[in-house]
Amino acid sequence: MSKIHVLEGNNRRYKVIIHTATPSGSNSATKAWKDVLLASGESGDSALNIGTKPSNITQAESDSITTGDTLEFSTTILLESSGATAESINAMVDKFATGEKKRLQNKYKYYGKTVG
User: Fold this and answer.
1) Is 63 part of a structural domain of the chain?
2) Which stretches within 67-110 are classed as H helix?
3) Is residue 34 part of a domain?
4) Could you report the per-residue pLDDT of 68-114, keeping only the tens digit for each?
5) Residues 93/3, Cβ–Cβ less than 8 Å
6) How far apart are CA 43 and CA 40, in angstroms?
7) Helices and strands counted in the chain (H then E)
8) By the number of CB atoms within 10 A of the CB, which of 11, 82, 89, 99 ranks highest?
9) How many domains does the chain have?
10) Model-level pTM?
């Protein structure tokens, strides 16, 4: 599975689609993160089409997203600079994905909890 799909750019900044593993474990309501994020609509769909053209994803990537095993995020990153190496881009994307997963875990901490 590709981690980063680079799309269109403007003035050295490029829109990217990021794929990362869904958090394991459960929220505070003992609901699996995979189930929580699918039920809330935060996962399960891709902005990219299946195919073999540039910017397409494979059927396997699509299946992983649809089943909730992989999360997809979109952001814009600076790619054209003297310091933009594969390592620095990976680090930037990892930091973004970690932040997005934490944001979702905070937002849905008690999602699905029932009382009484």
Assistant:
1) yes
2) 86-107
3) yes
4) 999 999 999 887 766 678 888 888 899 999 999 999 999 999 999 99
5) yes
6) 8
7) 3, 3
8) 89
9) 1
10) 0.90
2: confidence class by pLDDT, cuts 50, 70, 90 = confident
Task: Determine the Cα–Cα distance for residues 72 and 17; give it in Å rounded to an integer.
Answer: 7
Lookup: tokens for 8 = 């269109």
Other residues' Cβ atoms within 10 Å of the Cβ of residue 78: 15
Note down the domain range covering 30: 4-107
The β-bridge partners of 59 are: none
pLDDT digits (tens, 9 = 90+) for 15-29: 999 999 999 999 999
CA distances from 27 to 12, 35, 59, 102 (A): 39, 10, 29, 12
Residue 114 lies in a domain: no
